[in-house]
Design a protein that fits this description.
Blueprint lengths: L4 E4 L2 E4 L2 H4 L4 H5 L1 H31 L5 H33 L3 H39 L3 H4 L2 H24 L1 H43 L4 H39 L5 H28 L1 H19 L1
Antiparallel strand pairs: 1-2
Length: 315
């Protein structure tokens, strides 16, 4: 969702939101697509909001997860909930305002959606990076993990990350170049840290795989063997969520790069961006299913949460 810039002999000229994203030129081009994009975003808004609300309730009830790890997943679920409750409706409003030629509403929806999307995207990526580092610290620190990785320290780190992400999102409207450079540096940095963390983890696990399997078979009731099994499950669940984010984010990043290289983006490219944005937001609907699929404790808590109102209605 970028504002592209063109370099001329007299300096840098910025193509404003009013002149590019909210223009009468697009009315005839995107009549059918706008309605489709609005309908899909409204549907995904409902699924993301309901799904992540269930996950937050389940995480509140779940007590077996280590509090700092649970806090990171709650932060990620809250971010996805905000995408469903805020970003989806704003993006649907943008497309409908283009069709109905409500340009003031169009500009408001586009800018607000850009600010919230950049902030929430940055927070999601940062939280997943923190989860990957958390999984690595469990392996490296061993028994010292619970002493060093405390709930208070995790709150402080997340608070700092939230402030940075919100400020970066605000610059989408105030000074897009700052947001652009923040994304250009921040996103690859987060991915490199996550990849390095998981690579280190899997190298260590591969090196000790035979010993761990033998120990688990000989003494299956021992805490260390059971902890390693739980650790692997938690690792795989975090990795699936990380991969889902990359798959959903890459199409939009690719389209944005193509648009930035064009002086005037073609209608087809704008349509592709609309599709890429839908895939980008779909990550917030996909994550609750991944939690239920890969984290058995969360799955059981979700089932109990769903059963309670059903049993109450039947009783």
């Amino acid at each position: 969702m970028a504002i592209t810039t063109n370099i001329t002999g007299s300096g840098t000229q910025t193509k404003t939101i009013e002149g590019s994203e909210c223009s009468p030129v697009w009315v005839g081009e995107f009549q059918k697509q706008s309605i489709s994009f609005s309908a899909v975003n409204i549907l995904l808004s409902i699924t993301a909001t309901l799904g992540n609300s269930l996950i937050l309730v389940a995480l509140h009830k779940e007590s077996s997860l280590h509090p700092p790890s649970k806090l990171l997943y709650r932060c990620l679920a809250t971010t996805d909930l905000l995408v469903g409750a805020v970003s989806h409706p704003l993006y649907a409003t943008y497309w409908m305002s283009v069709v109905n030629e409500h340009w003031s509403l169009c500009r408001y929806a586009w800018v607000t959606n850009g600010v919230t999307s950049y902030a929430l995207c940055s927070l999601s990526t940062s939280t997943l990076t923190a989860i990957s580092v958390d999984r690595l610290l469990v392996l490296l620190l061993g028994l010292r993990y619970r002493e060093i990785v405390t709930l208070r320290r995790t709150y402080i780190i997340l608070a700092v990350v939230c402030v940075v992400c919100v400020v970066a999102g605000l610059f989408f409207h105030l000074n897009y170049r700052i947001t652009f450079w923040f994304s250009l540096i921040g996103l690859p940095s987060c991915l490199v840290i996550s990849i390095a963390s998981y690579t280190k983890i899997f190298c260590a696990l591969s090196h000790h795989q035979a010993q761990v399997q033998d120990y688990a078979q000989q003494q299956p009731s021992q805490p260390n063997a059971l902890n390693m099994v739980r650790y692997r499950k938690a690792l795989h669940s975090a990795l699936w969520v990380q991969l889902a984010l990359v798959v959903c984010y890459v199409p939009l990043l690719t389209v944005e790069i193509l648009i930035s290289l064009c002086k005037v983006p073609s209608p087809n490219l704008i349509i592709f961006r609309g599709i890429a944005v839908v895939i980008f937001y779909f990550n917030s609907t996909l994550n609750p299913f991944l939690y239920c699929w890969k984290i058995s404790e969360v799955r059981q808590a979700v089932k109990q949460t769903i059963r309670q109102p059903i049993c109450y209605a039947e009783g």
